[in-house]
Structures are given as C-alpha cells and as structure tokens.
Amino acid sequence: MALEITQFLLSAQSPDASVRNEAETTLSQFRDQNLPGFLLSLSVELANDGKPTESRRLAGIILKNSLDAKDAARKDQLVQQWVAIDISFKSQIKHSLLTTLGSSVREASHTAAQVVAKIASIEVPRKEWPELVGLLLANMTQPDRPASLKQATLETLGYVCEEISNEDLVQDEVNAILTAVVQGMNVSEQNSEVRLAATSALYNALDFARTNFDNEMERNYIMKVICDTALAKETEIRQAAFECLVSIASTYYEVLEPYMPRIFELTSNAVKGDEEAVALQAVEFWSSICDEELEIQDYEVPESGDSSAPHSHFIQKALPTLVPMLLETLLKQDEEQDQEDGIWNLAMAGGTCLGLVARTVGDAIVPLVMPFVEINISNTDWRSREAATYAFGSILEGPSIEKLSPMVNAGLEFLLNAMHDENSHVKDSTAWTLSRIFELLHSPATGFSVITPGNLQRILGVLLESIKDAPHVAEKVCGAIYFLAQGYEDAGPSSSLLTPYLPDILNSLIITAERTDGSDSKLRSSAYETLNEVVRCSNLLETSQIISKLLPAIMSKLEQTLNLQIISSDDREKQGDLQASLCGVLQVLIQKLSSGDETKPIILQVADQIMLLFLNVFACRSSTVHEEAMLAIGALAYATGPEFGKYMQEFYKYLEMGLQNFEEYQVCAISVGVVGDICRALDDKVLPYCDGIMTLLLKDLSSGELHRSVKPPIFSCFGDIALAIGEHFEKYISYALPMMQSASEGFKNSKPDLMLPHAPHLLQFLELVAKDKQRDESVTKAAVAVLGDLADALGSNIKVLVKNSSFCTEFLGECLQSDDDQLKETATWTQGMIGRAFSVCG
C-alpha cells in the first residue's frame, strides 16, 4: 500500500542541507527496501490534487527517473526492475497515473503523461498493457470530458508514439489514434490548448501512419487538416503544424505532389510575414525536401537516371519562386548573430537552405542568385552587403567549376577588399565565403585553383592582417587559411608556393592562439587546428627547419600549462582545453618530422622531454587531455620504435586508466589504438605488459557498459599483440577466441561498416591461430566459428578478404576432415556462410 511521503518530498527540497540530506536518505531507504511501495506512494502523491505542487513535482521527477535514464546500462537496469514488480502494484500505479491526466493542475497532468509513456515504452512492446490505447481514447470520445483531460490525453498519445515503435500497435489502434488526434486539430475545436496538444501528437504519430498515407482519401483529409492548422491564429499551433509538414517532407516525400502548390503558398507566406519560429519551420520544410532529393540523386544510376525512389524534382520546379524567397530571408540578420554561439535565425536558415538548393540543382541556381549578389554587394546598408556575400558563399557547392570559376575569379579581389569593410558582420561572412572558395575551388593537385602564383601573396597578406580582427572574424579567417593550406597537400611542385610564407603564417596563428580577447577558447582551438593543418600539408623537404623550430616553442608552452594556478573548476577546464590543443600540435609535429629520414633524429633527440611532458599532463587528470595526449603518445611510439620501451613502466598506469574508461568511451577507443602502436613499436618487448593489457581488453569486450563501437578495434588489437609476441600469445587464445566469437555474433544484426575496417586484422589473427599445430580442439572450434560469424556479419564484403587469405581454405579443409562431429558441423556452417557471400557477389 501507499505510504504518506509528502513531508519527506518537501523536506528533500529544503534550503537547510541537514534537513534535505535526512529526507533524501529516508526516501532512498524506502526505495531500496520496498521499490513497489515506493513507486506506488509517488504515483498516489502525484495524483492527489490536495497535495502541495512542490511535493507532486518531485514525486513526478523521481517516478520518471525510476523508469528511464540516458545511460543505456542504467536504463536496462531500471526496465528490469519495473518488469519484476508484482502486477497488482503495477496496476495500481498505472491507474493512479491515468487518473492524474484529469488533474486540474497542469503540471501534474503533464508529468503523468510523460510517466505513462515511459511505462508504455516498457510494456507495450511486451504486450503487457493492451488496454492502454483504448483507455486513452475513451477520454477523447466520451461526452462532457473537460478540455484539460483531452489536452493531457493527446499529450500522452503523442509521448507514447514517440517512445514505442510502429510495429508495437495494430492498424486499428493507429486508425483510432489518428482519428482522435486529427479531430483534436480541427478548426471546430474551440480550445487552443487541446488543438496544440493534438498537432504535437500528430507529429509523433506520423511514423505510424504509413497505411493511412497510402490511402488517398485518408491522406487528403490529414493533409487538409494540417494545412488548415498552419493558418491557426495561435503562433504555437502554426509552428507545430509546420513541424508536421517538415516531418512529412522526409517520411512521405513520394506522395506530396498534389499538395505542393498549397504548401508552397503556406511556406511562402510564413517566410514573408509570420513570426520567426513559424518562418524557420517553413524554411526547414524546403531544406527537408532538398535532403530527400539529394539522397535520391545519390542512388540514381548516372547513365539512365534510374533510381529505386521516385524523384519529383520539387526543388527544380519551385526554383524561380523558391530562390527569391530564400534570398529575402538573408536580409533578416540578427545584430548579435556573429558574437554568440548557438544563435539560429531566419537569415542563417535561409542561407543553409540556399546551400542545399545549390547542391540539389547545380548550375541552374547561379543565374538566379548572381543578380541579387551584384545589386547588393556594394549597397550602403550593411545588411545588403552581408546578405549578398552570404548568398555568394552559399552556392559554391553544387554548380560545376566551369560555371563557378568565372564569377569567383572576377569576385575574388572584391572579397579581399571587403575584409576591410567597416561592418564586422560583413567581414565575418566574407571570411567564411573565402574559406568556402578555398575549400571547394582550390585544388592544384587536380589542376584547378583560384589561387595562383600571381595572387597568393595578396591573399595571404589580407588574411594575415584580418586575423587580427575581432575574435569571430579571426576564427573564420583561420578557416580560410586552413583550407588554403589543405589545397597544397600532395600538390607536387605547387606545394612549394606556400613555403616562403610559412614562418609568417605559423607566427600569426601562434599569436592568434594566445589572444585573450575571445570570450571562450573557440578562437584558440581554431588557430591551433589551422596550425596543425598548415604543418601537415607543408612540403617537408623545404620546411623542415621552420617546423623543427616550432617543436621547442610548443613544448615550452605545454610546460607552462603545468604551472598554471588552478583555483576553480573553470581554471581546470581552461588548462585542460589548452593542454589538449598543444598535445594535438605536438602529435602533428611528431608525425611530420618522423616521416622523413633526415628529420626523424629531431624527434628522437627530444623524445625523453616530450614523453615527460605528456606524463605530467596525464597527472593533471582531465579527460579531454587524456584523449589528445594518448593520441600524441601513439605517434611518439610509432616514431621512436623499440626505444619507447623505456617509457612503458611509467606510462603503463595511464594506459590502464584509459582502457578502463567506459564512461568516456572515446578515451578507451584511443587507448586501444595506442596499444596497437606500442605493439608495432616494441614487438616482443611488450611481453611484460601483455597479461595486464589482455585482461583489460577481455574485460572491455565482455562489458555491457562499454560503447559497442570500441569493441571491433579490440579485435585488431588482439592481432597486433599476437603479431608482436608470436608464440607467447598462445596462452591468451582460449580466452580471446570465445570473446571474439560472442562479440562477432553481436555485430551480425548491425551494419557491417562497423566491423569492416577491423576484419583484415581479425583474419590475420585467425591465421596465427590456424598455424599453431599444438592448438586445443576447443580453440579450433572457436576459431572456425569466428570465421563463420565474420562471413555472416560482413556478407559479400568477405569475398575479397577470403580471396587474399589462402589459410581459410586449408583451415576449413582440416576442420571438415576432423573426427569431431561438432567441429565438422561448425566448419560446414562456416563454409556455407562464405559460399553464400560469394553467391551474393555473383
């Protein structure tokens, strides 16, 4: 039965810490000792309109958190706890929650709607709450039900549809939900809160409506109601209706043709004159149509134009009116848009959509945009100049080089001059446009570039001057330098063009990274990322002296970070960000200098100092640094080879920490990669550390907490360890193979892309096992099973791998001739899996 917990819930929110802690302890004990009674008491509290709002609010929060969590392992645990509760308790809890939907206190009914949906997400797929939809729909169909109950019920239906899969409901239930929802959206519905809840519910229910959208009559009715709702007098309802149209654009693109004239009219009017929240959704509709058409074009057969999906060419047809509409949005900038992150306004949405339109239709967009650019680029109003520049930059991806090059060549000097514009918004967009030009139209390796020996000095002069501008402009200038340098990678003789300017570029980037006028570390990160790219793409033979001078300077900067005064968590975060950036630069310098025989000794001479720096950085204990320092250590291991052994004793504890870091799984993944680097560097000298490393890797593989993307690289890592220590790997085989087998099985149902990069290593590892003539029978069974699982998971992708691996045929032959029936059976299955892959390939 339910207990009286009001006072504890109120005390748990007390400003007095001792009162608060005591109440929290009591509630925790209640939960741990009697979970069913605890959840029932919470649901009764939430349902009681006579209770204080504060206690009901906390009861609802605790209920939600008892059923759901962001962390997958925790969520699974909560689901199992709910499933294990006695059915009589669950029925009482669900009854309380459904009653709460009728509460006159909006916050309580809203929370109940969310909790009902969380329970539905557990029970509906298990067919354990078959009456739910019927109970909810009764609230909508029975006469004289209050509007507040209808609103809460529609909200619940929406949340339930969001939580469950469309396979979980039968078609009759879907039909009944859609009928109730569409009825609630109708113009005849007097209550605007009900209408809004219905429109939001439809948004979540659209995925379930495939059968209804296949029926022309039902589709016409649903589309009419949505389009009518897009004209409601309340802004929120109009916005919700346009959100439905955005979803329909991607889910039901193939049936949209008859409705496009009306939708164009609605979106056009919204963009021109509605509130920004509504206008943004109207633009988003066209962005979604572009995404669909780009996807269809990606799958088209070039010669025939054939595609499995119908291509209605909505963008091409709407182009003459769509483009002017989007260009108008560019003039609706926000004064603060460049200064603040996360701002999204109509001008930005319009520019993004314009870019998608350019990618969809290619050359056809140029004559529609260039007159706007030419008219506005010299206008006295900054908004016009900025809009023209933004429009120009937005259409550079999609049209052909032949179409773009004349206008870009003609406009380049104009853009360089615009970097001195009096308005910072114009300079910001100009720098962004230059970075787009250098990214898309500067590729000396393929024979085309807008940058020539004649204009490079002028371009770099402007960029290195403009990098001193306001932080938001300087950040975009970093992007322009980044792509300018990237274009010279592998560009043969052309890469020499940048060499004379390298000292000035590197110096400017270091000065920019040290600026203190930026509100956050974004400019510094951009400057260092650009510096990395400049170093990476430079011509080593010509620039080795310049780059080698950079090494001690960066090492010194990293050393200085170790002595920063850390008082607050903010200080710790800033130190971590700076260390991460500097470790990133050192990684690139190590890779660059160690890639040439003449320059490799430069790294070897300072390797001890570099490693000591990295170990000191680890001691600062920041996860982001852990990541960057790990990557840099991997590069150092590769560069120093067997010499890296002398650092292992000190480094091992940090490697161990990385391999155990399940929460920040990227750190774990990088640590796995570093094990591979170390194995390749040390060969059999890694042996003393292998017991510890293998134990941790096996623990990683068997963990339910660790993100699954980390597991395939561990297969590669086993291969690296086996290659490094040879016959000494034998003692790990009986542990490693079963783990690999169960993990391979887990990847059968997911995309093969996850497994593919690691498959060659896995085969290499299996080959080592196959060559071991002293292997145990159980090891042989596991190895042949892993081979079969791999073929099953990769499908036709296995063909080329097996062709290049002669051991497969021999190993399978040996297993098929075995006296052990179970082994023969497994080998026959594996042979079938490989055969199937070959037959699929044809």
UniProtKB/TrEMBL annotation:
It is found in: Cytoplasm; Nucleus envelope. Pfam families: HEAT_EZ, IBN_N, TPR_IMB1, TPR_IPO5. SUPFAM superfamilies: ARM repeat. GO terms for cellular component: cytoplasm; nuclear envelope. Keywords: Cytoplasm, Nucleus, Protein transport, Repeat, Transport. GO terms for molecular function: small GTPase binding. Coiled coil: none annotated. Belongs to the importin beta family. Importin beta-1 subfamily. The keyword Repeat applies. It comes from the Eukaryota. GO terms for biological process: protein import into nucleus. Residues 23-103 form the Importin N-terminal domain. This is Importin subunit beta-1.
